[in-house]
């Protein structure tokens, strides 16, 4: 097979699309030496792509522009030149292309939380995603929850959509000898125990509730912890900044910005608890990363998160600030519970791998051809 993959997201750090497509392709190439892969990119000199230039069954194909109105049609034309059998994209494909079409839709958050998207992006997804769902020979998503959500929202035939769980990279694991790692934390102003959050900084991640729960714990329990928030700023981050500025505990709330994947395992390992009160997730990868590092998890009891955490963390109503504060305090004040959650989390995380994701995706490629 000649497999074409829209790979431009591999150049855009800090998004779920970036994590998914990089890890999927890395694993596909590792397990599949028979089929040819055509990776459609916008910057062929991007350092990450150097590794692919030495692989026999991989070709980098330039689509030239980052502008989707130019990039997507060029990608479509390239599929005819490259005689593609299967084209795999995330969310939106070219209106014309060669080969069977696989579309990965991680979630449909733009339908449930339109206020978290800029007007143009919301309009674009609302118009184009239904078209691509109808065009696709197969739709992929990343959880049972997301599959059911797409079926219900778009009246999709169940046999046309599969879920392939995300995986977790081997760098996310319990680490030893972390004494020197404290120096890295000091660089960000972290001086002691801390509560950790990772995710895009937008309203859907419900960071406001997390900060309110943190302030409750400071007031009522006098916890010594800092709250560390890591992630790339998205839509409406100013609102969150304003909430911090008026807080009497603003000195204990630290924004690190986007953290490289090499640093994240350190933070997960050193945090007393990872808290993720998101209002909607197609998968919830940070919970999986935290569990893989042995960090206890407190997260939401809605959308896909119960499916991914599966009893290995404390799940709460993300809109109930007091319940969130109680759950955090249970973890940080109870070493026995922390150890129990650590063991459960490690066991649960072992069930996910990018090699499994790649194998199931490859089976879908073969299925649509057959």
Key attributes of the depicted protein:
370 residues; alpha/beta; 7-stranded parallel β-sheet; 16% strand; globular
Short account of what is shown:
The protein is of the alpha/beta class and 370 residues long. The chain contains 14 helices and 13 strands.
Report what the structure shows.
The chain has 370 residues and is of the alpha/beta class. The chain has helices at 16-31, 68-81, 109-112, 119-135, 144-154, 181-187, 207-221, 237-245, 264-270, 285-292, 305-309, 321-332, 335-349, 354-369, and strands at residues 2-6, 36-41, 58-62, 86-90, 100-104, 138-141, 161-163, 194-198, 226-230, 253-257, 273-276, 297-300, 314-316. Strand 12, helix 11 and strand 13 (314-316) form a beta-alpha-beta unit. Helix 1 (16-31) packs across helix 14 (354-369) and helix 10 (285-292) crosses helix 13. The mean pLDDT is 93.
What's the helix and strand layout?
Layout: E1 2-6, H1 16-31, E2 36-41, E3 58-62, H2 68-81, E4 86-90, E5 100-104, H3 109-112, H4 119-135, E6 138-141, H5 144-154, E7 161-163, H6 181-187, E8 194-198, H7 207-221, E9 226-230, H8 237-245, E10 253-257, H9 264-270, E11 273-276, H10 285-292, E12 297-300, H11 305-309, E13 314-316, H12 321-332, H13 335-349, H14 354-369
Parallel strand pairs: 1-2, 1-4, 2-3, 4-5, 5-6, 6-7, 8-9, 8-11, 9-10, 11-12, 12-13
